[in-house]
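Question thread 4412

I'm putting together a teaching handout and wanted feedback from people who do this every day. The idea is simple: show students a protein as raw sequence, then show them the structure tokens that encode its fold, then repeat with a second protein so they can compare. Below is the first pair exactly as I plan to print it.
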Amino acid sequence: MFFMKDAAQQALDINIGRVLEMFRSGVLDRSQACEALTRFFEGASHHDAADLNAHLMRIVERVDIGTLEPKEARHKLVKAALASEKNDLRYVDILHHMVEEA
């Protein structure tokens, strides 16, 4: 079971990292990056879709303007996505803190 969690976390890390890198390299614009990141939170039943979109858009914006390092964003987004898969409301706090740290 431990190996499964590790593999899921690794897959999320790789995929979220790819989205952020595609955004930083100009392949994706802000809205496309936000839409791609939203897919990692599809199982999140306790979060309003508009709030989730607003949080992710602000996080992508912070990465774009340099107030949030991509590596830190990836790490925290992975933690939030893993929590949301378990319907653990900590993911809301993680996203909220990422937005407010600016």
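The second pair follows. I'd like the answer to focus on this one:
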Amino acid sequence: MAHSVDFNLPENMTIANIHSMHEEFEALVDKQDCDEVVLKGEQVARADTAGLQLLVAFVQATKERQINVTWDHPSEKLCKAAEILGVASYIGIH
């Protein structure tokens, strides 16, 4: 039975925590019964290029596996960083 998984993004989506986020994202896309991931981004205070590159790779992996990604209250800082780097529309953030 398919279901939705909520994922709380960290306060600092930076190169410093990219490794642990990568492992968590890999586990999400490998779940057999997951058909939607809700990214909760309200706590994100910092996001650098590495953090956003990881989000792009995660969204690509979910598309390949037909997993829907939605956003729940992405922070203004996260939205602004995604816009500056030109990835906002690709990752579906507003």
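Top answer:
Good format. For the second protein you could add a caption like this: Residues 30 and 93 are 23 Å apart (CA to CA). The mean pLDDT is 93.
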